[in-house]
């Protein structure tokens, strides 16, 4: 059976609290040899490390998600440096920028405000909001702190970018000689992918590649060279077909890999060798730890 890695999972989320050992067992039975559990704040990162200590096949990424920036400390670097010392921490993140839900769009941060009756059907020009600009600046500062610690520690970054690709690339550029980024859950076009690869960074594909409306992602997969991308679930989100709408889990990399191999016109064995080698090069501590 060809083996694969799930390079982006959220095993510490409550969705897995009741059956995590079984989730890990199913992943291994499906040929998913290694799983990287991604932190979204300091508590989540600490939980990811605990899971890496509990399960030999699990590794951790530590960081603070941009969507939670309002709760972040002013300087997260000391905590990141300490967490990064753990031998099973393989990268920093999930970090980056997310402009999908800005404060001006929400009555409370993160909850989109419904339109009033007077606004329904009316197109209103978007004026720059000082609140939104402050929010973006806080995200940029948090992202930069992750990049600085990555440069210090020799680790790479797991990058979240939603509706923010240009600013994300601009933030990464000054660090490109020292830090690589994997743009996870990649759903942008092939031209953006080529710009990322030109910075010696990578992209990673999720179950979106299997969706009926995911042709744009399949087109990007087709254009991305073997050895320049990884596979992930982003579980518990984005379950691939035929599980769409249900809880996602690491074993579903099997379905993702089957679609990607078909799109690439390669065998599962070739895809396994390429993606696992890429992951081991990108996350060197994986190669240095047995699973």
Concise summary:
It is built from ten helices and ten strands. With 291 residues, the chain is an alpha/beta fold. It has one domain: Metal-dependent hydrolases (TIM Barrel).
Write up this protein:
The chain has 291 residues and is an alpha/beta fold. 38% of the residues lie in helices and 17% in strands. It contains ten helices and ten strands. It has helices at 20-29, 42-54, 77-83, 130-153, 165-172, 190-198, 215-223, 253-264, 268-282, 284-287, and strands at 4-9, 32-38, 58-62, 89-98, 106-108, 111-112, 156-162, 181-183, 202-205, 229-231. It has an eight-stranded parallel β-sheet with strand order 1-2-3-4-7-8-9-10. A hairpin with a 2-residue loop joins strand 5 and strand 6 (111-112). The longest helix is centred in the middle third of the chain and has 24 residues, at 130-153. The protein is globular, with a radius of gyration of 19 Å. The two termini are 17 Å apart.
CATH class category name: Alpha Beta
Strand percentage lies at: 15-25%
The side-by-side strand order for the widest beta sheet comes to: 1-2-3-4-7-8-9-10
Task: Give the count of helical stretches.
Answer: 10
Helical amount: 25-40%
List the domain count as a whole number. Answer: 1
**Oligomeric state of the chains in view:** single chain
State the end-to-end CA separation: 17 Å
Strand and helix order? EHEHEHEEEHEHEHEHEHHH
The overall pLDDT average reads 92
Query: Pairing-aware structural class of the strands and helices?
Result: alpha/beta
- Tell me the major beta sheet: 8 strands, parallel
Radius of gyration: 19 Å
Poorly predicted regions: 107-125
* Tally of DSSP β-strands: 10
CATH topology value:
TIM Barrel
The H-level CATH homologous superfamily, spelled out, is Metal-dependent hydrolases
